[in-house]
Amino acid sequence: MIDYEFFIDQSRCIGCQACVQACMECDTHRGRSMIHLEVIDRPVSTQTGPVVCMHCEDPVCAQVCPADAIKQTEDGIVHSSMKSRCIGCSNCVLACPFGVPRYVASIDQMMKCDMCFDRTSIGKKPMCATVCPSQALYFGPPAEIERIRRERPVNEFRFSQQVVKTKVNVMAGPETNVMDFDVLTFMSGGDDPMNDLIHLSVWTDHRV
Amino acid sequence: MAIPTLDETQFINKFGPHLNYEPPGGWQDQKPDKLVKTHCCFCGVQCGIQLKVKDNKVVGFEPWEEFPVNHGMLCPKGVKRYLQNEHPDRLLSPLIRDNNGFRPATWDEALNCTVHAIQRIQERYGRDAFAVLGGASMTNEKAYLLGKFARVALRTANIDYNGRLCMVSAGAANKMALGIDRAANPWSDIPLAKAIILSGTNLGECFPILTDYVWRARDNGAKIIVIDPRITPIARTADLFLPVKPGRDSALANGILHVMIERGWIDEGFIGCHTEGFDQVRELIGKYSPEFTEAITGVPAASIVRAAEIWGPAETSMLLHARGVEHQVKGVENCLSYINLVLASGRIGKPGCGYGTITGQGNGQGGREHGQRCNQLPGARDIENPEHRRFIADFWRVQEPDLPHTGLTACEIFNAIESGKIKGLLSISFNPLVSIPDANRTRAALEQLEFYGCIDFFLSESGRYADVVLAGSLQEEDEGTVTTGEGRCVRLRQSVSPPGDARLDWQIIADLATRLGAHDYFSYGTAEDIFLELSAATKGGIADYSGMTYSKIENNMGVFWPCPSPDHPGTPRLFEDGRFMHDDGRARFHACEYRPPAEDVDSEYPIFFTSGRVVSQYLSGNQTRRIGALVDQYPEPLCEMHPILAARVGVTQGDQVRVKTRRGEIVVPVQIVKTIRPDTVFVPYHWPGKKSANLLTNRALDPISKIPEYKVCACRVERA
Fold first, then answer.
1. Do A43 and B643 touch (CB under 8 A)?
2. Do A202 and B615 touch (CB under 8 A)?
3. pTM (2 d.p.)
4. What is the pLDDT at residue A188?
């Protein structure tokens, strides 16, 4: 399972939260889920997106940690903060470009997805990717995903000037090599008048 | 008069629903004593799952990746299902109603009390005045036993089950068109299809793991057509979405077939060799032009043409439907009209080619085959067929004339309680107060019963009306089999034994039979004894299980019926030889003229009301409303409403809205979304009491299948 990789395809997600519920059940998580399911804009769409840690090659969370509490192991997994070091400052929470780490007040510590280190280290798949009913979360060999999916994996992301390379892949269109995020454009997207045009073209018979 | 002696709050304090969040012993890492390979207790997909057991308690789960249907995948209900075990609300002994709710009773007292009531009512009012209601969550063994109990021990005609509220219209249509009530294909055919129609199925929320099958088809180049009044999660990225107006499905299917015929996208060779009745359909379809169909259905003519362009010439295809088209007074006609699309294409009985209803309940398939339906005997035999009657009468060693004939269906049983014809009721795994339409009438009917006995593991809202509650077993407490939505009979394993004084359901039924003097017919030592009897009883029937044994089912990870002999491998795909199950081997087209729903919108009630489910709850919620993390996911019913309608009603996000029909009203928060037709509101139905969607729904029945019209009625909405 050493060559297995993690792939996320948001277009497959049905928002069921099996990943969130199952993450809680992992032996080491003790009822706390490390995966977030983002509801993108429910008034407009049922689109949802599961967010696991992307396990950056050069993790920003670790760079900004003043207590050196976030460690990356040789296999590229970026771990939750070390209890003995974490000072609960939330620098990592603010710095992560994907919004992954969460500060847990009850234990005064940052916790995040560690790609089920306890499971993958004994040859099991991560819990979320095992249960995911739509396989929006997939864990397997890269050659296999290339064979079975139309989309192609991307693991390079550009946030304005910042380029982030990750261990986890996101499935994208066949022409995409890098995913570009212009945050300001996304933030203004909610008022896009096209939204209404799209929807009214679905409900043509909208006289009520 | 079965009137509860506590108010709602008192009942909730004593019997829940309380929310269970943690496994027994808390979240610390518990080394399980064993992992039990079994199945989820919820929907008709019956995902394989391993339950972690420690000290005779279920403490968690582990995915079962080897099981070939779900490969470890689970929905949130499956993930959290283990929390129903060791639940604080679990019934631990029989209960008898007193002035303070219920008091614990011994089994002797509770069973005798039940038997005396049965005998008194049957002596005074006749055998049929006592009715039995079963559930399609039960194993094949229990479904068989309950049917035999009603016919042999009680000799009442009036036994039916909650599958009547699920897919019986599809079952009837399947029998009429194809001669058999079973999905024609295994789900493994879905990824091989190049065109898929999903009609009236919120597949992503109700059968979540089948989503992967549909997406794999899309990976292989399939085009997906979704037909629904709401843009459900599976519809969001469909290639074509047909936003059908509630209650218009048969017209839409006719409209698509019209274009197929016009463009020559039909298989004349197949139609000629393997079917009957196409000429009548062709004649009827003539007027269902895209424009004519648009006027009825609200689906744009161009989209109807596009659907035919995708479906008509496809190389392979699967058509799947569920409750959306089935829960209507023309449920049978809707299904027949969709089957016409399949038969006209000639694409059935081959890899990647076929059709099926996606059965909703855990044992929705097996639960309807073994005799708990008012019109069926084991093996999906017809209770009015003289040969079938004789076979079962001989098998049971009873006189054929003593075998009751067709009884009343589930909703009709409640109508008959209202009219005073039925005086006593025994229910198991059925929560009619939440699940039967027009709940105010259901409540009044329960109050009118002279005796109500309820077998269940939690006290349901209906159970509060019971005179005697018999503490039964959870799915993981018994051995048995269920037959999944694809016709695969799978093995459930006992993980733990029932707690306290609770007993296995089948032992309770057998005990009642013994006390009614029918011991000789009900002496079983194990669930497997019942299975051996039921499989023998199905021999020669349509649903033939006679070649199955527990070990064969386990070794093969399920066996598809028909399986008529020990060396038979089972039948995953039907009709491979081009023969359908009618005597002449030919399938039947049925020409179904569109007719409107029983209650259409008008100036007084101008908005369509439709109901359905959410992913985190199951059926009447008697199990899932007790599991904390599932309740947190969707805590209470919301009324989905389009912003255009919301503006007219004058409500904004989160406001309370009153939804009112001719039968009742509810007040729930509004959820304003652009994913629903502007002329329709939707409320999920899993909740009881004042927020119960079934206070609103219409108990109008399909004339053939007697399924009620949950999916369309007329309402008004106003700010509350």
1. yes
2. no
3. 0.97
4. 57
